[in-house]
Amino acid sequence: MIHFTSNVMANRENPYDIHDLRAIFVDYGVSIHYIIDREGIVRCYIPEDRVAWHAGKGEWAGDPAFTDRMNYHSIGIELAAIGSQSDMSIYMSAAEYAALDSSLIGFTDAQYESLSQLVTDICSRHHIPMDRNHIIGHEEYASRKQDPGELFDWSRIVPESVG
């Protein structure tokens, strides 16, 4: 499951400080298997054979086995990113968003490259089909969420994807 995270509400100048991002997870009692920073560095915080508390409540494909239980059935990957103005509207006003440094918005080439390698490796090791039925965004499971959002280019990690 793909997510995005930042500390933009508390630190607009440096919203991707890795220590701040990690503290957000600790403070909110959630966890993630991997975080990929803006330079494409992949950090593992929870081993894949352990549950990470990243998915929350939701449902997938109408299968009751996943309802409110996706943490037990997924590997969570966070990208240090800020989504579109629409994605971020629950956190900040349009004026606040417009004032952000545009280089902080969206995803970097280095992130896409690292994410593609990580997802390919995970799918290979766990015999998971590399398709959009098995590689999903948080927003697809928990409709109240906006990540990875409308700026995320799925075709860069799942080649047959469009949009």
- Tell me, rounded to a whole number, the average pLDDT: 94
Q: In terms of per-residue confidence, which ranges show pLDDT below 50 for 5 or more consecutive residues?
A: none
Major sheet size, sense and barrel closure = 4 strands, mixed
DSSP helical segment count: 5
- H/E topology pattern: EHEEEHHHH
Shape descriptor:
globular
Number of strands: 4
Cα separation of the termini: 17 Å
Percent of residues in beta strands?
5-15%
Radius of gyration: 15 Å
Helix vs. strand class:
alpha/beta
Any overview of this molecule?
It contains 5 helices and 4 strands; from the N terminus they run βαβββαααα. It is globular and about 45 Å long. The chain is 26% helix and 9% strand. It has a 4-stranded mixed β-sheet, covered by helices on one side. It is an alpha/beta fold.
Search tags:
alpha/beta; four-stranded mixed beta sheet; globular
